[in-house]
């Protein structure tokens, strides 16, 4: 029965990616292969940069621990963004509970599916890192083999941390009237706190710069105790690998027992509606149709936590980064002063943060079978679609603009480079707002069991990420090869001119086929 449930999860995944259709199976295989290749390339490049930097300061032995800690942080963050939808927010809960199986079996199936997804992240990030480190550090055969053997265990503890956060937030939402808003806000606060602690764990004092390796290891050990055993694994101690395996297994079984106890309770709490009687008079305000559509988009955002958390994550990262560089990070400022050419990558970094998950890639699919409401409204179809584009720009644009201004001020950019950074950030936000909507209209998915399917696994989401990686990754390679700030300005201007042409083309496409999308949708 457990095997059948896991197969069912993968069947839903393939369905969301349209890989059950022969016409799109080959295309999706190529797309996923490109994304995987891009991820491996970025992982190898990042590992080489870290190894070269740590080799210069005689701290090459700390690289595996640093990569391990970074991977754990990534798994926790993405786990929090994903686990609530997989564990609790799915439509076939009643059907599964009516089957002759234990609740523990359902819990195990959900957790194993999440573990396999996190295992892919672990392999993509850590296998290239171990291989690169092996050549830089002249590691022994035992050190490399033990690290590779530990990879299946790396995702277990951080995954349970993210699951525990999601469980705690979902359980507390039972006592709140507006559950979606509470889950979104509370999760965002916990994520912000976690990222702040993670960044502080790698910040070294001036005294620590004399022995970077020892200082970095002690800080990571203090903030993340499981890293103590991983340090022993890196040093080639088999006993630490066995202890790491035992502790991960015990933690997994304890968490399954805990989740099994409260699984039905959390679901009943999420599905309940808290009513509040009120005899107050309500003044009905007149709004334009476009304003009402924007309000509808906001209501969808606040009522679907996984949708709000994923699409607002860039906003959270942007605000956190602005505060971080303004008040905390002296090392980043010093690094930029020592190597001024690094500023040519800053517009790309900012643009990538705010366009990882635009609302338009899943807003149409999230309406599901209720899309007929939009079709029946006596308004211009263009307003329906432009409201989705404008809403994503309103959500991400102001914060992206704020981050660009803060970065330009903190790093003392010239007027030309400041305006370029701001304009490039705004243009990419507009571009991916339109692109995400067109992709979602071309490949909608109205038949989903959990909102995590269109938000995290949908074909429009994956295509948007692929286009984002190709655009910004290709632009990054070009400016890196040039290495000159003045020439980089010219490259960015050409890129922005091409982006403006694509934006106009997408806008014209929506104007031309908006009515057809409404009829066919």
Which key terms come to mind for this protein?
single chain; 23 helices; 0% strand; 521 residues; mainly alpha
Helix and strand sequence: HHHHHHHHHHHHHHHHHHHHHHH
How large is the share of residues in beta strands?
A: under 5%
Kindly state the number of beta strands.
0
What is the arithmetic mean of pLDDT? Answer: 77
Low-confidence stretches: 205-210, 274-279
Approximate helicity band: over 70%
Measured on Cα atoms, how large is the radius of gyration?
24 Å
Major sheet size, sense and barrel closure: none
Oligomer category = single chain
- Alpha-carbon distance between the termini? 37 Å
**Protein structure class:** mainly alpha
Shape: globular
List the total number of helices.
Answer: 23
In brief, what are we looking at here?
The chain has about 525 residues and is mostly helical. Helices cover about 80% and strands about 0% of the residues.
Layout of helices and strands:
Layout: H1 2-16, H2 22-56, H3 63-87, H4 93-98, H5 103-137, H6 141-154, H7 156-172, H8 179-200, H9 212-223, H10 227-234, H11 238-271, H12 289-303, H13 305-311, H14 313-327, H15 330-338, H16 346-354, H17 363-366, H18 371-376, H19 381-410, H20 415-442, H21 452-457, H22 459-482, H23 485-520
């Amino acid at each position: 029965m457990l095997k059948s449930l896991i197969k069912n999860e993968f069947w839903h995944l393939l369905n969301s990616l349209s890989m059950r259709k022969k016409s799109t199976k080959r295309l999706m295989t190529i797309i996923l292969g490109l994304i995987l290749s891009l991820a491996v390339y970025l992982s190898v490049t990042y590992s080489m940069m870290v190894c070269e930097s740590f080799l210069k300061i005689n701290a090459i032995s700390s690289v595996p621990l640093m990569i391990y800690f970074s991977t754990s942080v990534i798994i926790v963050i993405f786990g929090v963004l994903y686990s609530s939808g997989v564990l609790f927010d799915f439509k076939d809960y009643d059907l599964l509970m009516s089957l002759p199986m234990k609740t523990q079996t359902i819990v195990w199936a959900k957790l194993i599916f999440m573990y396999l997804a996190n295992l892919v992240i672990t392999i993509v990030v850590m296998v290239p890192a171990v291989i690169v480190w092996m050549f830089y550090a002249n590691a022994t055969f035992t050190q490399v083999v033990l690290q590779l053997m530990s990879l299946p265990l790396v995702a277990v503890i951080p995954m349970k941390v993210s699951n525990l956060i999601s469980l705690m937030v979902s359980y507390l939402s039972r006592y709140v009237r507006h559950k979606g808003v509470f889950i979104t806000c509370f999760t965002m606060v916990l994520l912000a706190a976690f990222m702040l602690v993670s960044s502080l764990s790698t910040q070294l004092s001036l005294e620590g710069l004399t022995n970077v390796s020892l200082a970095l290891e002690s800080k990571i050990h203090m903030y993340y105790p499981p890293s103590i055993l991983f340090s022993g694994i890196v040093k080639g101690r088999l006993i630490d690998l066995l202890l790491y395996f035992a502790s991960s297994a015990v933690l997994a079984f304890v968490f399954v027992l805990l989740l099994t106890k409260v699984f039905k309770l959390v679901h009943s709490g999420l599905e309940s509606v808290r009513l509040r009687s009120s005899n107050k008079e309500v003044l009905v305000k007149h709004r334009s149709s476009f304003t009402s559509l924007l309000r509808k988009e906001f209501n969808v955002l606040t009522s679907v936590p996984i949708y709000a958390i994923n699409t607002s994550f860039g906003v959270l990262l942007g605000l956190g980064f602005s505060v971080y560089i303004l008040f905390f990070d002296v090392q980043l400022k010093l690094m930029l002063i020592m190597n001024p050419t690094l500023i040519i990558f800053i517009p790309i970094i900012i643009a990538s943060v705010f366009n990882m998950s635009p609302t338009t890639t899943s807003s149409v699919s999230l309406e599901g079978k209720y899309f007929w409401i939009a079709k029946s409204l006596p308004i211009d179809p263009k307003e329906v679609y432009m409201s989705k584009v404008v809403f994503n720009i309103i959500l991400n644009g102001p914060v992206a603009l704020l981050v660009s201004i803060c970065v330009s001020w903190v790093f003392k950019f010239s007027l030309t480079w400041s305006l370029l950074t701001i304009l490039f950030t705004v243009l990419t936000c507009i571009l991916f707002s339109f692109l995400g909507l067109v992709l979602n209209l071309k490949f909608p998915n109205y038949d989903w069991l959990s909102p995590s399917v269109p938000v995290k696994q949908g074909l429009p989401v994956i295509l948007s990420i692929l286009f984002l990686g190709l655009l910004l990754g290709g632009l990054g390679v070009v400016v890196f090869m040039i290495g000159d700030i003045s020439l980089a300005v010219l490259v960015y201007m050409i890129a922005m001119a091409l982006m403006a042409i694509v934006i106009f083309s997408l806008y014209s496409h929506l104007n031309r086929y908006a009515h057809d999308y409404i009829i066919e949708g």
